[in-house]
Amino acid sequence: NLHRKYRDILVHGLVLPEDIFGPSAVSRGDDRTRLITLRNLSWETKTYTIQLDLTVGLLDTTRHVHCRQFFPSERIIGTFPQGKTVDVEVAPFRSCLLLVTTKDCDEPGVAGSDYEVLRNVPGKSVILHLKGLPGTEARISIQPNSGDFETARLNGQKKDQLLLGETIKVRFPGQALQRDFHRKLSELNVCDVPSDAQALYEATVFAGDNNALEVRSFFRSGESEISQVIEARRAFFSQDVFLERGIWDKNLFDGDKSTGFWPSRKYSIDMRVAGGCFRLDFGEVIDINRLVFYVPDEYSLQPLLNDEGNYAEVSTDLKTWDRLTYLAGKRMILDIPAPVRYIRFRSFPDRITEIEGYKDGRMLSRNLWRASNLFAHPRRKEATKAWTAQCELDEWVEGSYLCIAVEGEHGIEGAYAAIKVNDQIIGCPDRAPSFPSNTWEYVYARRDKNYTYYVPITREMIGQPIDVFVLAYDEEKLDLSPTVWQTAYPVPFESIELELVRK
Questions:
Q1: Hey, which end of the chain has fewer CB within 10 Å, N or C?
Q2: Inter-residue contact 269 to 236 (CB < 8 Å)
Q3: Burial class (CB in 10 A: 0-12, 13-18, 19+), 32
Q4: Alpha-carbon Rg of the chain, whole angstroms?
Q5: pLDDT at 104
């Protein structure tokens, strides 16, 4: 809506000086109204000083300048004389969108609190969500020029004094946080390569996935109730050209032997790390007698050993692995004598179209099953250096997670991270830049430095010792400085609904 409103002036841009405004800062607009974008690519909050004059493109010197933040949350910064400066904070690894204008701003706004405009359309009441950290208080007032209203309600209760220009106090629900939700926990120190380094590595590659980036985007976005979105997703993921690419592991468990999952090669680039390794995670330890997997033709059997058979490695805990053999064929059967959760194949068929599991002749549910095929087998991943730190969390925050930052050049896929909680190994299910992916349109970012691994924080972790590990694999690139941070996304704001009923 903002883009549509300001589209006529957004086409006129001005690159701002990096030494003042940070990297890639841009001001767009006309002589009286500018929309400024700032960014912060660091772990600490940055403060930029904005000069409200020609420095950002404002030529009108006859009026005061209204300054408002539109993103990441909305906030009224204030109104200032022309030429004055205003300090703007930009959160770590976030962008910031500002409006500076000498015109009257007709966007609804609330002073004293961050907020989000949920609805602002003609003929309906305006709905805003006030935003604040749990247990905090704010004194709010409605910004002039927000509109012509007859009633104001806070969480359904009438507060018409807001329409008279009064300021009222609000308290956001929840218990106040004792610590900053975003903070550095520790630096990691060099240690001996742990005896269970392979299990730490396996925990993270089993936690991750190699699905197409579009699949990951789908899961990040979450479910939708909008019929057009649902239908567009169905059309995209069910189109023949997508299915034929074999880039989503769920096609191994869909009952359709015409679909499957196999390492993609795009633009002559082999996405596999050191030859790749097929991994299958049942999601929990299960009692299974027989695992059956299918390939479409005899050519897909390559690179099975001697074209006759192969072996798989199975485990319940990622530490102890047993070897099982099976015979090659378009339908291959792996007999499993004991409960198991994890399976990996040193070499594996070029194309797999379906995997089924049976217990006493009964087919098992595959709802929790996941697979990957690009991560290296541990025999080709030997850690040469390690770092560790121990930390303990004293409170849980909604949406919080650990960030294990591996700062320095470590080589492509040259550093992995994992944690232990009470000696239970927990892998990192996500990373920036992204884990290797089977490609739909373009290859994933193959970076050789500054990986950051993410681990969601659960309530069970609070008060427990957490051991953080980083493992490096390139002998020539071991000058690393790992750190561990706690943060949350989105910001753990609580909300209070403000409804403004139009006259």
A1: C
A2: no
A3: middle
A4: 27
A5: 87
